[in-house]
Design goal:
This protein has 347 residues and is α+β, with helices and mostly antiparallel strands. The chain has one domain: Penicillin V Acylase, Chain A (4-Layer Sandwich). 16% of the residues lie in helices and 32% in strands. The strands form six sheets. The protein has an eight-stranded antiparallel sheet, covered by helices on one side. A five-stranded antiparallel sheet has the order 1-2-18-19-20. A two-stranded antiparallel sheet has the order 4-5. β19 and β20 form a beta hairpin. The longest helix is centred in the last third of the chain and has 14 residues.
Length: 347
């Protein structure tokens, strides 16, 4: 389970754009942030020697790497599950049960395994339109990863600094794309079915405005009355869509408030540790929110924090040297600097 969203922007110029996502999973995998430089070769990992498509990055980017073990071995596969490049283009990878990948044809050098798709996008494109057109022109044939037994049902949300968004899904062995501007994505069912659910009359009536009175005054908190509160993908889709209808809009020059607002919305879809367990084993975790990121497209800042390290950490992509690779890996889930000691302020 995961949730991605964009916050509607203000009418001011320059427009300020912010998006965010959670990473929800039941198994804890090694997850780090890593810088990839212009000219870096791809794909990474043990499969690179046999991978049909090979490329070098035109743009540097920050990527969150989760290491999945190759089936039947102890060899880790490092896949990019989220990231932002030097031009401000971002991609989010989310789980989507029911995904069926196309059957690649021939031995063309444009075949790419789905787990490598995020790195290909971040390293090669600056806008959603360019990516959309390249896919239409057959730049890649996306297929399942055989070394993971094709058990990685994924879909993607790609966003750029203009506010343009592209949903990419795989249904009945076809690539299905949808352009949008809200960045909304969770998990199953497929995106078009999520929109149908969101457009039900009972959800259309939801508003931030208080709707009830009690004891002679309006009942604070009766705004959004009836908003679903469980952790299922359809409920999270509706909840975050309606939360983004807040009267607040990100504005230039007040980044702390903009990022803080995105953080608040993230907390409404956060799945606390141990609150979702498996049907046949109630003591075994099913999913929980392991980490989250917030992306500032105007300033090209990439924030992250995790379940057990709530301190907000920032990466300023404009200050990074994307001409060199340094191999540095920054843990995203665990870190010593998880709080600020304010004791000295009283001395």
């Amino acid at each position: 389970m995961c949730t991605n969203f964009s916050i509607p922007v203000s009418g001011e110029e320059p427009a300020h754009r912010v998006s965010a996502r959670t990473m929800d999973f039941g198994t804890s995998f090694k997850t780090v942030l890593k810088k990839f430089a212009v000219g870096d070769s791809f794909p990474k990992g043990p499969h690179a020697i046999i991978h049909p498509l090979k490329w070098r990055a035109k743009y540097g980017f920050i990527g969150t790497l989760m290491e999945f073990p190759v089936m039947g071995t102890d060899v880790p596969f490092p896949g990019v599950w989220d990231g932002m490049n030097s031009s401000g283009l971002s991609i989010a990878t989310l789980w989507l049960p029911g995904s069926e990948y196309p059957q690649a044809t021939g031995t063309k050098d444009n075949r790419i395994w789905v787990v490598d798709f995020p790195a290909w996008v971040l390293g090669n494109f600056t806008t959603v339109s360019d990516l959309d057109n390249a896919m239409d022109e057959g730049a890649v044939q996306i297929e399942g990863a055989p070394f993971l037994e094709n058990k990685t049902p994924l879909h993607f949300m790609v966003q750029d600094p203009t506010g343009d968004c592209l949903v990419i899904e795989f249904r009945r062995r076809e690539v299905i794309k949808a352009r949008t501007n809200d960045g909304l994505l969770t998990n199953a069912p497929f995106y078009d079915e999520q929109l149908k659910n969101l457009n039900q009359e009972k959800y259309k009536r939801l508003t931030p405005q208080n709707t009830e009175r009690q004891y002679g005054q309006e009942t604070n908190g009766s705004g959004m009355l009836g908003l679903p509160g469980d952790a299922t993908p359809p409920s999270r889709f509706v909840r975050v869509a309606k939360m983004c209808l807040s009267v607040y809009r990100p504005k230039p020059g007040i980044e702390q408030q903009n990022i803080g607002f995105a953080w608040q919305i993230l907390q409404t879809v956060w799945v606390p540790y141990g609150t979702v367990t498996k049907m046949d084993n109630p003591d075994e975790l099913a999913d929980f929110t392991q980490w989250a990121v917030i992306r500032d497209y105007t300033k090209k800042h990439y924030y992250f924090y995790s379940s057990f390290n709530p301190a907000l950490h920032k990466i300023d992509l404009q200050r990074l040297d994307f001409n060199t690779s340094d191999g540095v890996e920054v843990p995203i889930a665990w870190s010593d600097d998880w709080f600020v000691d304010a004791t000295a302020k009283f001395n």
